[in-house]
């Protein structure tokens, strides 16, 4: 039985793991009779819980009322139904592949892409998990914006991946990290057999939940073929 490690980044498309992408990925894994184990880094991130709506031209987007801190690990447990381990406990020897669903958590909790763009950094435990899996010659798969994390960590090896349209800002930055970028539609997958990297655009290109499920299914089907 194949075992897939899944890295979560919180709960919610704007500040954590995208729910539809995460669940469709887990479903595609489970339907093959495989197991998945969710992981998440431990740490906090800031969210904006409330914004006042104001009716004047000088503050069209509202006035910030407050911020709060949330725990990435605790938030991720909502998706994993409590079946969650700290990412620093991940050992690629125990798993057949590593998977990263999308959501802005990949860009703000697993990395600083959302804030720093081309100067982005990746959380140490996340970078270590990706590099250790790659060096163990095991597949790494990712959805939506999460391939940007792969581009930062594995771009030096000229991995091929997709972030949806080839002419968007994310794709341009991924090329700047050394990655090769392939344009893909909502349910397409980019398969790099040389480096064992499989990616799909999900909501970088999709507009319907059915496309998310189809993309996740195609992603895991490509992973299954890669694992043999």
Mean pLDDT across every amino acid position: 92
Distance between the first and last residues' Cα: 12 Å
Main sheet specs: 7 strands, mixed
Secondary-structure-derived class: alpha/beta
User: In the CATH classification, which architecture applies?
Assistant: 3-Layer(aba) Sandwich
Number of domains: 1
What are the low-pLDDT stretches, counting only 5+ consecutive residues below 50?
Answer: 50-59
Q: Helices, strands, pairings?
A:
Blueprint: E1 3-7, H1 19-30, E2 35-40, E3 44-52, E4 63-71, H2 72-80, E5 84-86, E6 97-100, H3 105-108, H4 113-116, H5 124-135, E7 140-143, H6 147-154, E8 160-161, H7 169-176, E9 180-181, E10 190-192, E11 197-200, H8 209-227
Parallel strand pairs: 1-2, 1-6, 2-5, 6-7, 7-11, 8-9
Antiparallel strand pairs: 3-4, 10-11
Short description:
This protein has 228 residues and is of the alpha/beta class. It has 8 helices and 11 strands.
Structure description:
The protein is α/β, with parallel strands linked by helices and 228 residues long. Helices cover 33% and strands 22% of the residues. It has helices at 19-30, 72-80, 105-108, 113-116, 124-135, 147-154, 169-176, 209-227; strands spanning 3-7, 35-40, 44-52, 63-71, 84-86, 97-100, 140-143, 160-161, 180-181, 190-192, 197-200. Strands 5-2-1-6-7-11-10 form a seven-stranded mixed sheet, with helices on both faces. A hairpin with a 4-residue loop joins strand 10 (190-192) and strand 11 (197-200).
């Amino acid at each position: 039985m194949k075992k897939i490690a899944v890295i979560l980044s919180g709960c919610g498309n704007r500040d954590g793991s995208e729910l539809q992408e995460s669940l469709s990925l887990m479903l595609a894994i489970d339907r093959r009779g495989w197991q998945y184990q969710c992981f998440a880094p431990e740490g906090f991130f800031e969210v904006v819980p409330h914004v006042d709506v104001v009716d004047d031209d000088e503050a069209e987007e509202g006035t910030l009322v407050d911020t709060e801190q949330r725990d990435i690990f605790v938030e991720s447990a909502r998706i994993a139904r409590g079946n969650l381990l700290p990412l620093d406990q991940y050992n690629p020897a125990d798993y057949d592949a590593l998977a990263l669903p999308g959501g802005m958590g990949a860009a703000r909790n697993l990395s600083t892409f959302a804030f720093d763009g081309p100067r982005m950094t990746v959380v140490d435990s996340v970078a270590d998990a990706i590099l250790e899996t790659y060096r163990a010659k095991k597949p790494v798969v990712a959805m939506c914006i999460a391939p940007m994390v792969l581009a930062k960590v594995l771009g030096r090896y000229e991995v091929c991946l997709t972030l949806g349209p080839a002419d968007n800002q994310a794709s341009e930055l991924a090329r700047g990290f050394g990655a090769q970028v392939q344009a893909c539609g909502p349910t397409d997958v980019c398969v790099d057999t040389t480096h064992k990297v499989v990616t799909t655009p999900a909501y970088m290109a999709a507009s319907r939940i059915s496309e998310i499920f189809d993309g996740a299914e195609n992603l895991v089907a490509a992973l299954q073929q890669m694992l043999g």
